[in-house]
Each structure stands twice: as C-alpha cells, then as structure tokens.
Fold this protein.
Amino acid sequence: MPPFSRRAFAVGTLTALTGCAGLSRSSSDSRSAGRVEPSGSDATDRSTAASTAGATDGSGPPLADRQPYVPFEPAFLRERVLSGGPGKDGIPAIDEPTFVPVSEAPETLDPESLVFGVVHDGAIKAYPQYVLVWHEIVNDTLGGTPVSITYCPLTGTTMGFERGETTFGVSGKLLNSNLLMYDRATDSRWPQMLATAISGPLLGEALREVPLAWSTWKGWREAYPETLVLTEDTGYVRDYGGDPYGSYGPPDGYYADRGTLFAPLHEDDRYHPKSVVLGARTTDGAIAFPEPALRQRGLLEGTTSASDATNGTDTGGADTAEAGTRLLAVYDPTLDAASVHRNPEGLAFEYRKGTVIGPDGGSYAPDALPLEAVMGYDAMWFAWAGFYPNTAVAE
C-alpha cells in the first residue's frame, strides 16, 4: 500500500506493451462456499485431466485447505482469457534469484523505490518493483519453503504462493487484465488474483498464499534492517530502474490514466479505475478497503458480500448472499501497508498513531492483533471490481 502520491490513481498509448508486462492463507471442507466446483464440461475436463502427471504425484504446487470465494464458473472465465502479446515464457520468470544485504543494495534502489516485502519461515526479503515489472514471477525459497513471488503491473497486484517442487511461469495470457500463471508440473492455469485454477488437472483447486507488503525501500529497511534484497543479477538484460508502463511517483502513463488496455469482466464506476484498494476474500465473499480512507482513519471494518450469480451474466450489483465475514483492516504507517483480520464478535479497537488499542486496553502493533489474520492484497479498483462484482466496500 504505497503512498498515494505514487499510487492514488494509476492507459496511455501502450500498443507495444500488451500483456501483464507485455515485453521481450482452515477449513478442510472442500465444498465450502465460494469454491469453484467443476460441473458439466468442467467436471469432465477435470476427470480426464486428473491422471496427468503432476496432478496426484505430489510434484504440483501445494493446495489450500480453505478455498477463496470465486464468483464465476471456470468455463465463463476461460472464454474471456486473452493473449497479452508475448507467448508462453515470453516474459521470463526469474528462476535463480540472487540477494544481498542492505549494505550492498543496488544503487538503482533509492529510498522511495517500491519494494514487495515478505517475512516468512524465518526469511526476510524485499523484491524491487522495478525488477519484477520485467519478469512478473520470481521462483524463490523462503527459509525451507519454496515460493513464487508474483507481480502484475496491469492490475497493480503482488502476491506470494507456495510452489512445492514445481515452479511458476508466465503464460502470456491475461484474464481481466490480470496475470495468468501456469505451474510447470501440471500446466494448470492460475489467474493471480483468484489464486484458483481455471483449467488443467488442478481445475478448481486453490494455491496456498504467502502474504506480501507493498512498501518503499526506506520503510521496509527501517522495519527490517536485516532484510535481503533481490538484485539485478537475474541472468537477463533489462532496463532495470525503468518501467515500460510509466511511473508510480509521480503517477503517469498507464498508472495514471483512467483507461485499461482490455475490458474488465465487470465495470464499476464508484471509484477511479486505477485507484487502489486493499482487497480481501474469504470462502463466502469479498470486501475492498479504499486506501485513502484506510490511511486517514487507520482502521476500517466491514462484512464480505458475494454475488448469487456464478456464470458472470447476472452480476447486477445488488444481490448478495446472506452469509458474510466481518473483517478489520489496520494501517501500518512505517511500512505504509495494511493487514486484515477476522473480527466475528465485532470487538472494538482504537487506532492511535500507528498503535492499536484493544478492548482489553492492551496495545498492539497493526499486524499483531489478537485476531485471525486474513490474506489481503493491493489491487486497482477496476481489477478488484471485475473479479468481485458484488464486493462489499468498507468506508
């Protein structure tokens, strides 16, 4: 959640830059609400594909126990996959990343450079946006956990996933302008934002997610001085430090314009298309926390909502499921990021200059509330509303 001087509004003429870089968190109930359950031709596709190597031999990516809400049928989504321009692996993932400590950080990395930070399994790392914009996926290991760190510049989303024994690559395809990944064990296709396979042997399954923080190099190294940072030694020659889409600070190019390169799955004019929201989805619905309000107030709370439609043809904007999960988002001023927590009992928390006061009078860091954490990530409004047409909005 970077400062709004960089991301409040993020398409110019990018005809040569199509593609998502167009260049050379449990229940074990497998039928919980919101899961993409195969039916009809989808069921046949999955049954036929289940024998494919990698689907059942453990070489595919680890799968989540709790399925995130997906309001569309896989067949509907597959029909709306578009070519982003480059072919499969035309945008090369980084498979052998190298890291250095803060003292050896690249000169290109200035204090206000955007980084995607992660703390996981004892490892602390930062991935500069100016590197990932050219690769979109970094196949890495955090502690003992193999992961893939992913970034889609067209939707402004950065997300981490456990990858197991396989790696992820860039398919060259887009859905709702979002990066369509594939795992190299099963060739299943995964829209990054949905974290759920829409085709292949793992159709309808969800990935295990790893939380990331969108921050600045200054903020991240202040909070985690022991961090390692991804270098420009990727094995590829790219204009690291440059961004083919424009600039987040000050915002220009694609990041500043109202337009999108591809039509979204659903249009919602409540906010500027490129305004940034912190999105969260549970098994029963989705919710967006607008970042200007979150930054100003420190705390935002709301209940997820879900569409009754699953084929994408009757989104309406009004029909919602009765079930919902009460979520609380908290802003961290050091990282200029936020975390999301379940608050089913509606406990009262107070925000005081970066510290949260609980109902017991205790003080908590924004990411250490005595509540269950929920996966949340930054996204451009058009992309979030496209995937989640009946999303609740907390203001």
